[in-house]
Design a protein that fits this description.
4-stranded antiparallel β-sheet, 33% helix
């Protein structure tokens, strides 16, 4: 009967060899997806967290479209040409720059 230490060492060697060969079997493509024009966002003036709807309208003008509040707490949004402002009740939660359709592409694993 084979020595148990020999079998353990053999099994360990086989396991190590199999583990080391896995990275050579796996291949992946690196896909780079543009995230928009981040530099221009920094230069863009946007409503800030906590501003009231009245302050936003006074500083940035009337939005192109106002979406009614939904949910609890009520969340509404105002749509401007280049960005969207989200409100919780009367206060800004976040302003988000719209993506440029020409710079955003779906990533496919081709």
């Amino acid at each position: 009967m084979p020595n148990s230490r020999f079998l353990i060492a053999l099994f360990g060697s086989i396991t190590t060899a199999a583990t080391l060969s896995l990275p050579t079997l796996a291949q992946a493509d690196q896909v780079t997806v543009p995230v928009g024009q981040q530099a221009s966002r920094g230069a863009m003036s946007l409503p800030t967290h906590g501003m009231t709807q009245m302050q936003v309208e006074e500083r940035f003008g009337a939005p192109e479209q106002r979406r009614a509040a939904v949910g609890d707490p009520p969340i509404s949004r105002w749509e401007y040409a280049d960005y969207v402002v989200y409100f919780e009740r009367d206060r800004v939660l976040r302003a988000v720059v719209k993506s440029d359709p020409g710079t955003t592409r779906a990533a496919s694993g081709g």
